[in-house]
Amino acid sequence: MCSLGPAADRPRRVIAKVEHHLGELFPRVGFIVTTLTGTNRAVVRFYNQRGTAEQWIKEGKARFRANEVRLLLGVIAYNVGNLRRRLALPLAIQSWSLTSLQQRLFKTGGRLIRHARYFILQSAESKLTQRLLAQIIRRIERLVWHPT
User: Fold this and answer.
1) Of 31, 96, 120, 146, which has fewest CB within 10 angstroms of its CB?
2) Of the candidates 73, 85, 65, which has an alpha carbon nearest to the alpha carbon of residue 143?
3) What angle do CA 18, 12, 57 make, to 5 degrees?
């Protein structure tokens, strides 16, 4: 046996909800089963407002979740960048901010040329010198774990 709570004792009624939409030949018909009292128009208005409020709540939750994910990704990116800055960069540029690193080192245009036995990195004029790049690569190589 199913229990409907305190509303089970009150009489229920069925209200037809008819909506006419522009460009549609036939109206949309729906039914509301309710224990609310009041005019049919007032009950339909109440349920329409309730549905609109529930849509706003649903949208708000989705936006909140998207913002939460974006924030978490930003935190992870910052921490990875900061870790990379501390572990892989030479002392001369460890004090640079993450924005400076991004703009001066990683957002520099360039081209990688592949030959049979070697690669050549041609980069646009930037703060990334050949000596600095070699230091960064050596420090990264030292971080790599080599199983024995």
Assistant:
1) 146
2) 85
3) 60
Token pair belonging to 107: 């957002």
How many whole angstroms separate alpha carbon 34 and alpha carbon 43?
8
Q: What is the DSSP string of 92-125?
A: GGTTS-HHHHIIIIIS--EEEEE-SS-EEEEE-S
The residue written with tokens 């002392």 in the block is 91
N- to C-terminal Cα distance for the chain? Answer: 67
What pLDDT tens digit does each residue of the chain (148 aa) get? 455 566 667 788 999 888 898 999 999 998 989 898 899 999 999 988 888 888 888 888 888 888 888 888 888 878 877 777 778 788 877 777 777 777 776 666 778 888 888 888 777 766 667 787 788 888 888 877 777 6
Give the separation between CA 124 and CA 127, rounded to whole angstroms: 10
